[in-house]
């Protein structure tokens, strides 16, 4: 029984000391990260990367919009011309029968 009690007391003491040291180290790391993030050179790079990302997103959006417009025009032409099949406005339609229950 003494061994278990000693083990629990030692574990509790280690936990308390460890959490204090852990918190202090965490605070040191957090302060260093805050100083790094607040550095004007780092902030300059952050703004530069944000601007580049915004420009790339705008370019990708414009390309996507152009492609979507072209595809929509092709679909519209195909639907209004009957698709060249003579089976109606939607062209050849393949029907699949569902198995009955």
List keywords for this structure.
single chain, 101 residues, mainly alpha, 78% helix, 2 helices
Provide structural commentary.
With 101 residues, this protein is an all-alpha fold. The chain has helices at 2-38, 40-81. It has a domain at 1-59. It is 78% helix and 0% strand.
> Per the principal axes of the C-alpha atoms, what is the gross shape?
elongated
Mean pLDDT: 80
Task: Enumerate the spans where pLDDT stays under 50 for 5 or more consecutive residues.
Answer: none
Q: What structural class do the secondary elements suggest?
A: mainly alpha
- What is the helix fraction of residues, given as a range? over 70%
Instruction: Please outline the major beta sheet.
Output: none
Query: What gyration radius follows from the Cα positions, in whole Å?
Result: 34 Å
Count of DSSP strands? 0
Strand content: under 5%
Order of helices and strands: HH
Q: Enumerate how many helices there are, as a single number.
A: 2
Q: What is the terminal separation in angstroms?
A: 70 Å
Brief summary of the model shown:
The chain is mainly α. The protein has two helices and no strands.
SSE arrangement:
Elements lengths: L1 H37 L1 H42 L20
């Amino acid at each position: 029984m003494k061994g278990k009690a000693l083990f629990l007391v030692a574990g509790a003491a280690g936990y308390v000391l460890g959490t204090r040291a852990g918190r202090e180290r965490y605070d040191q790391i957090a302060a260093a990260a805050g100083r790094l993030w607040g550095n004007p050179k780092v902030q300059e790079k952050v703004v530069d990367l944000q601007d580049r990302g915004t420009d790339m997103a705008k370019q990708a959006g414009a390309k996507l919009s152009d492609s979507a417009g072209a595809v929509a025009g092709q679909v519209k032409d195909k639907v209004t011309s009957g698709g060249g099949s003579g089976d109606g406005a939607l062209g050849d339609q393949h029907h699949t029968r569902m198995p009955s229950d």
